[in-house]
Specification:
The complex is a heterotrimer.
Chain A (H helix, E strand, L loop, with lengths): L1 H28 L16 H10 L6 H13 L13 H36 L4 H13 L4 H15 L15 H8 L3 H16 L2 H8 L4 H39 L4 H10 L3 H29 L1 H11 L1
Helix pairs in contact in A: 1-3, 1-12, 4-5, 4-7, 4-8, 4-10, 4-12, 5-8, 6-7, 6-10, 7-10, 8-10, 9-10, 10-11, 10-12, 11-12, 12-13
Chain B lengths: L21 H7 L1 H23 L31 H37 L1 H14 L4 H12 L3 H28 L2 H8 L4 H37 L11 H9 L7 H28 L6
Chain C lengths: L1 E2 L4 H8 L4 E14 L2 E14 L3 E5 L6 H8 L7 E10 L2 E2 L5 H7 L4 E4 L3 H4 L6 H9 L6 H14 L5 H4 L9 H13 L5 E5 L7 H18 L2 E6 L2 H7 L2 E6 L2 E7 H6 L4 H9 L47 E4 L3 E4 L9
Parallel strand pairs in C: 4-9, 4-10, 7-8, 8-9
Antiparallel strand pairs in C: 1-12, 2-3, 2-5, 5-6, 10-11, 11-13, 12-13
Classes of the chains: A mainly alpha, B mainly alpha, C alpha/beta.
């Protein structure tokens, strides 16, 4: 198990590295003075510019530049914003907590709602309730999140005046953004839970469990759910990047002071150091989530561990 | 059935008869038909919009700006006095066009690479799989944003970005389908007879992936439309005054309190279109390959 | 002496002199599907005595597995037990509440299944799964684990302590079947139902498993109800046999009698379909036609359409049970005439 985890981590690191290489490569291909990727030359005194060129290896050949760049990244130096002159790392760190707040709250809420609904649908399979649940959650998937946000804003913010519609003014301001992030995506998890449970119930080992003399509750908990919820649990980790991605848009609808809003502002203003920095952070976050998901699935389902070992051998 | 039926039957319960009427056919394929109708509406609008729309989508009428829906302006006017109904109707053209192009690129890329990876295996597979995995190193929206940043904001770039981000999903599915198909006896026989790889792929494997492709394509359209309108909403796709539904929505954001109709209706149009394709895709899946059900 | 089918229960009960371990009387099970009602098991009666090996034989779909599941009250929906009695000792299992039945399973009567790979939960280790059974007796955990390892030894799993920590997919087919067997006998049930225990295994492993079952019977005196389509298996371990066709028992006899002189035409054909050594070449005989649909209650004998000895009266009425000495039963209009 330990070997498996280490292997997945190693693979994850490789992917992060590959992403940085691609990112660097793309940035290099963009026209103009590479100093723009690090700071605004018009704001910086001339001697400082030379210093920066040295520090980032801008006078060196590309592959060496990459190493300088990577080194600086690892030290937490992402350069300076073109718009504000601030250090990019400071800017991002100020925003990251807000995005995480939104993303994690949404993620937890999503699973708290979707999994029980999926279970309910499975237990009452093919009943009216089941069809209703699946229909509603599937229809929600066709609703664009940003539009849903606006509608919610209109209804609860403007018309009813219950909730703040933009910015961060205390806990109540998180309600609408979280609702917008959570609702449209429920369908996928509901269906996954439902189908996994329905499939697991038919498995022969469930019959074996009953034949052993186990009561219904024990069979349901230890055999049905234990197996059926594996993919769902793994999806929890794998969804984090998606939720972060979704929040990029939602933050702009609600003027939520997170990374997503910063990203959009920076893209609009061509503030490349900031864009670069945010993308790296998100990539790292994504790879960490995927790796955690992989490790978790190996932990929960021993067959997966073995499968991968065989593939290696 | 079997030839062992007893000579005389008794009072066995009646077996369900095959669909006796159109009614039954409709009920069984309700999803597909509903989706198809919805799609046809959008198609119809897009085709006839020039005569259907009361006004050109960019005709400004400042004295009548931000007017509520009423007679003569069924969906109200926006901040430039433009007729919202006309703009939404014209938006259908953009949506369909964009959706079609994105899905076409996705399909071509995904199917080709998936086919190659699944059929050849080995290092071809490893390379393609690595690239596919890399696409998932970033959440799709973020990756699309990065691509658009590099290329510059325009609808065409958004199309490219979304297609590049989404082909990986196709490729994975086609790859595993190809893997399961390539060891089927008639393929092995063809190989033994010396048929070229290309020929085998075209004549045997590809046709068996058609149903998968059709279903995937139909189901990818809603996602493509949602993603592209999202990017247009952020101002990175179509630029004003294009009647792109995402653009109209973002314009309406500023007037959420005073003129909500500007944002409400384009959103409904998006939902209608996406829902139509979704239902069609699900309906097709039920017919073509029920085992694919999630 | 001829008896009508409804007297078949009396026939089974009257014959034996030992205590009946399991007495099935008039069991009928149907599946209610969208297309109609499938009568999978029709008025089945038989008895398994203490310590004996009773085999229920027939082709796929004849209802033997469903009968076994019905005894355990594990028939999956849309199946339902419509009538009958299942007496374990003197308790009718069909009248128990769900909880009472759960208490009976594993402890008084247990069942092992075909294909142990899918019948064992892949996420739990072998020892844990056996332990789980033992824990039903409210035994402390460590004691249950010790017993689980002990049981693995009893079912002849080498390196039991090591294997107890293995996952099912890490074990061979034979070992998995032993684990399942161990799991089910760990609480020393009086009756073990084995549903096609060897079908999914290699021939050599089959022999080992059968041997194991016989050994367990010898040591613990437990009765075995074995469900199989393999007449070879029956010949090897069964004491008495019931042949099923289309949901009914068509013949019942001691194993030697059955093989020496099968009376029902279906049994005769089954025997002839067995490849036999030393009988010279010749094609394997097959039985033409296929099993009838179980949806309609046939008017005549269910086997009539495929029976080489068919006569007019066979299609007009269901054959009654002919009772011959020593618990022997045949359901055939032509019974009484020695196998032709």
């Amino acid at each position: 198990m330990f070997a498996y985890a280490v292997r997945r981590l190693g693979l994850g690191l490789l992917v992060v590295l590959a992403v940085t290489i691609v990112l660097f490569g793309v940035m290099q291909l963009m026209p103009g003075d590479p100093i723009r990727l690090i700071a605004d030359p018009s704001r910086i005194p001339a001697h400082k510019i030379e210093q920066l060129r040295e520090q980032w290896g801008l006078n060196r050949p590309p592959h060496v530049q990459y190493l300088y760049w990577l080194g600086n990244l690892l030290r937490g130096d992402f350069g300076h914003s073109i718009v504000s002159g601030q250090r990019v790392s400071v800017l991002i760190m100020a925003r990251l907590p807000y995005t995480l707040m939104l993303a994690l709250t949404s993620l937890f809420l999503h699973y708290l709602i979707a999994v029980p609904l999926g279970l309910l649908a499975a237990v009452r399979a093919n009943s009216r309730l089941d069809r209703c649940i699946v229909l509603v959650t599937t229809a929600l998937r066709t609703v664009p999140a940003f539009w849903l946000g606006i509608i919610l804003m209109m209804t609860f913010g403007v018309r009813l005046g219950w909730l703040p519609i933009s910015g961060f003014f205390g806990l109540s301001s998180i309600v609408l953004p979280v609702a917008t992030l959570t609702l449209p995506s429920l369908g996928g998890t509901v269906r996954l839970t439902r189908s996994e449970v329905l499939e697991t119930i038919r498995e022969p080992y469930v019959l074996t469990a009953y034949a052993k003399g186990l009561r219904e509750r024990a069979v349901t908990l230890r055999h049905v759910l234990r197996n059926a919820l594996i993919p769902v649990t793994v999806m929890f980790f794998l969804s984090l990047p998606w939720v972060v991605g979704g929040s990029v848009i939602i933050e702009n609808v609600f003027a939520w002071p997170g990374m997503g809003r910063l990203l959009w502002n920076s893209i609009t203003n061509q503030d490349l150091p900031v864009v670069q920095g945010i993308i790296v952070i998100i990539a790292v976050l994504t790879v960490i989530s995927n790796t955690l998901g992989d490790i978790l699935s190996g932990l929960l389902d021993p067959r997966i561990r073995i499968e991968l070992e065989e593939v290696r051998a | 059935m079997s030839g062992g039926q007893p000579a005389t039957t008794t009072t066995a319960p009646r077996v369900a008869a095959k669909p006796r009427s159109v009614m039954r056919l409709v009920l069984r394929h309700g999803q597909l038909i509903a989706g198809l109708l919805m799609f046809l509406v959008v198609l119809g609008v897009a085709a006839t919009v020039d005569s259907l729309a009361p006004r050109p989508f960019d005709e400004m009428d400042i004295p009548n700006r931000l007017m509520e829906p009423g007679p003569g302006r069924l969906l109200g006017t926006d901040h430039y006095g433009r007729d919202v109904l006309s703009r939404v109707l014209y938006g259908s053209r953009i949506a369909l066009r964009v959706g079609l192009i994105v899905v076409t690129i996705e399909t071509l890329l995904g199917v080709t690479l998936g086919l190659l990876a699944g059929y050849y295996g080995g290092w071809v597979d490893k390379v393609i799989s690595f690239v596919t995995d890399m696409t998932w190193a970033l959440p799709p929206i973020v990756l699309a944003l990065a691509i658009v940043t590099a290329l510059g904001p325009s609808l065409d770039n958004v199309i490219i970005a979304i297609a590049l981000v989404s082909w990986a999903g196709y490729a994975r599915l086609i790859r595993s389908k190809t893997q399961s198909l390539k060891n089927v006896p008639f393929v092995e026989a063809a190989r033994a007879l010396g048929e070229s790889d290309l020929s085998i792929m075209f004549r045997y494997i590809l046709p068996n992936t058609f149903s998968l492709i059709i279903v995937l394509a139909t189901l990818s359209l809603p996602a493509a439309i949602l993603s592209t309108t999202a990017l247009s909403f952020l101002g990175l796709g179509s630029q004003p005054p294009a009647p792109d539904w995402g653009v109209i929505l973002s314009e309406g954001l500023t007037f959420v309190g005073s003129a909500p109709w500007i944002s409400v209706f384009p959103g409904l149009a998006i939902v209608w279109t996406a829902l139509g394709f979704n239902l069609m895709g699900e309906g097709l899946r039920d017919i073509l390959d029920p085992r694919m059900k999630a | 002496m001829r008896l009508s089918p409804s007297d078949s229960r009396a026939a089974s009960a009257a014959v034996e002199t030992d205590a009946g371990l399991l007495t099935v009387e008039g069991l009928s099970v149907s599946f209610i599907t969208g297309r109609g009602r499938v009568h999978a098991v029709r008025d089945v009666s038989f008895e398994v005595r203490e310590g004996e090996v009773f085999a229920l034989v027939g082709e796929s779909g004849c209802g033997k597995s469903t009968t076994a599941l019905a005894i355990m009250r594990l028939v999956p929906p849309p199946g339902a037990i419509e009538q009958g009695q299942v007496l374990l000792g003197d308790r009718d299992l069909l009248t128990l509440t769900n909880d009472e039945m759960a208490a009976v399973r594993g402890r008084d009567v247990a069942m092992i299944f075909q294909n142990p790979l899918v019948a064992l939960n892949p996420v739990y280790r072998a020892g844990v799964q056996i332990q789980e059974a033992v824990l039903q007796d409210n035994v402390p955990r460590h004691e249950a684990w010790r017993r689980a390892v002990e049981v693995m030894g009893q079912v002849r799993i080498s390196d039991a302590a090591l294997r107890a920590d293995s996952y099912p997919h890490e074990l061979s087919g034979g070992m998995r079947q032993r684990v399942m067997t161990g799991m089910m006998i760990s609480r020393s049930p009086r009756l073990l139902i084995a549903d096609e225990p060897t079908t999914a295994l290699d021939v050599t492993i089959q022999a080992q498993i059968l041997d194991l079952l016989m050994d367990l019977r010898r040591r613990t005196g437990m009765g075995i109800l074995i469900i199989t389509h393999d007449l070879g298996v029956v010949a090897e371990i069964a004491d008495r046999v019931a042949v099923m066709y289309a949901g009914r028992i068509v013949e019942q006899a001691g194993v030697t009698e059955l093989y020496d002189a099968p009376l029902h035409p279906y049994t005769q054909l089954l025997m002839r379909a067995l490849p036999r050594m030393g009988k010279g070449e010749g094609r394997l005989e097959t039985i033409s036609g296929s099993v009838p649909s179980l949806m309609a209650e046939p008017l005549g004998c269910a086997f009539a359409p495929r029976c080489p000895l068919r006569q007019d009266r066979c299609e007009q009425g269901e054959p009654e049970y002919t009772r011959l000495g020593g618990g022997r039963l045949v359901a055939c209009h032509l019974a009484g005439r020695a196998g032709e």
